[in-house]
Design goal:
Layout (H helix, E strand, L loop, with lengths): L4 E14 H4 L22 E12 L2 E13 L10 H10 L5 E10 L4 E7 L2 E5 L11
Antiparallel strand pairs: 1-3, 1-4, 2-3, 4-5, 5-6
Length: 135
């Protein structure tokens, strides 16, 4: 069965990753425009691909680039490899700035988040503190 969590948020990639760096990346969804419930792959994250059509004298040029990374689905899923799969994207983005976070809420209410700090994906868990005077 396993432990399910709902993942939300995204991590922006600046400047975006060009097609030649993402075309074979395992986090590239088969259909980059699909936002349904199926992960469509074996990754806990998917690259968000921006497509631009450019008219040229030889026809229409399609320009694709990854502008962010987000959870693989909007539905709750196990996400056991979330940190490792995010790190794969970070490693494929040298010289880029990755900002944002992916938050998680487990089926038991536990919360945590992932952020990129100095090129490394780190997991953070909230700290519960009592307010002053409550001791």
């Amino acid at each position: 069965m396993g432990y399910y969590a709902r993942y939300t948020g995204s991590i922006e990639i600046s400047p975006p990753l060009p097609w030649n760096l993402i075309k074979d990346h395992p986090a590239l969804p088969a259909d980059p425009t699909y936002r349904g419930s199926a992960t469509g792959g074996d990754r806990d994250v998917r690259l968000v691909v921006e497509t631009e059509l450019i008219d040229t004298e030889d026809g229409t040029l399609t320009k694709k680039r990854a502008v962010a990374v987000e959870p693989a689905t909007d539905d709750a899923f196990k996400g056991y490899e979330m940190q490792a799969h995010l790190q794969e994207v970070v490693d494929a983005a040298p010289g880029r700035t990755l900002t944002g976070r992916i938050d998680a809420t487990g089926e038991d209410g536990q919360q945590w988040r992932f952020k990129v700090v100095d090129g490394t994906v780190q997991r953070f868990e909230p700290v519960l503190t009592w307010p002053e005077g409550a001791e």
